[in-house]
């Protein structure tokens, strides 16, 4: 019997360059719609490698937050150093930081990191549950916001941070100026709580960019703020200038809101993968 030649070896694909790396420093949403879970889904969809530093664990679902437990400072610091010192980052996004001690710790870490930072100053959940201690507001204002390339407060967070209540687009200018006074390079004041179109104002104090989208008739908007901030960070990691990154992120989150779906008995999440789905209907 003639011996058979050995099978040809399976070709080894050439090494693939790593995608841009983005780090989220935020809390866990056990329901998967917001927090770390929303951040990582967004980062993957937008072509980046997402990494995480967990700051808190929440028991959370479509109806609200049933409990929250922050992690020790040492655990947060160790996670951050583990990722940044070995893997490196091209952008960082912050979300739920819970306490003054955690805000101060994260701000110090960010100040020593050479990468753009998107600060989402999370104060309350979509359902109105507090996610930041009142005692932490000064640390957010004077330590965290100065590290931000872009700060992304919604109108409730603007009031928490500045005392300004915004009732119109003109008020958004005054609010953005007040936020910039704390030191971020750019402020994105999100006007989604106003009537009419969903309008946001991006400014660095010199340039103004008004970003408008139609208000969508969909109550399933859980995770909107986390998703927008993560999308901005992902685009910055790709090298976009801030106005380009924010405009692309606004388009992405508008599509995610349009595709938001019911989940559980309350407010469902936005669809982070809406732009990758190939769904046909008869």
Order of helix and strand elements from N to C terminus: EHEEHEHEHEHHEEEHH
The residue ranges in which pLDDT falls below 50 over 5 or more consecutive positions are: none
Largest sheet: 9 strands, mixed
Q: Mean pLDDT, as a whole number?
A: 92
Strand order of the largest sheet: 3-2-1-4-5-6-7-8-9
Task: Compute the separation of the termini in Å.
Answer: 58 Å
> How much beta, percentage-wise?
15-25%
Shape: globular
Structural class by secondary-structure content? alpha/beta
Helix-residue proportion: 25-40%
Q: What is the strand tally?
A: 9
**Number of alpha- plus pi-helical segments:** 8
Instruction: Tell me the radius of gyration.
Output: 20 Å
Task: Please provide a brief summary of the model.
By secondary structure, this protein is α/β, with parallel strands linked by helices.
Describe this structure in words.
The protein contains eight helices and nine strands. The chain has helices at residues 35-45, 73-86, 100-111, 137-144, 155-162, 169-180, 224-237, 242-258, and strands at residues 21-29, 49-61, 64-70, 91-94, 117-119, 150-151, 186-190, 198-203, 208-213. A hairpin with a 2-residue loop joins strand 2 (49-61) and strand 3 (64-70). The protein is globular. It starts with 20 loop residues before the first strand and ends in a 24-residue tail after the last helix. The model has no long low-confidence stretch (mean pLDDT 92).
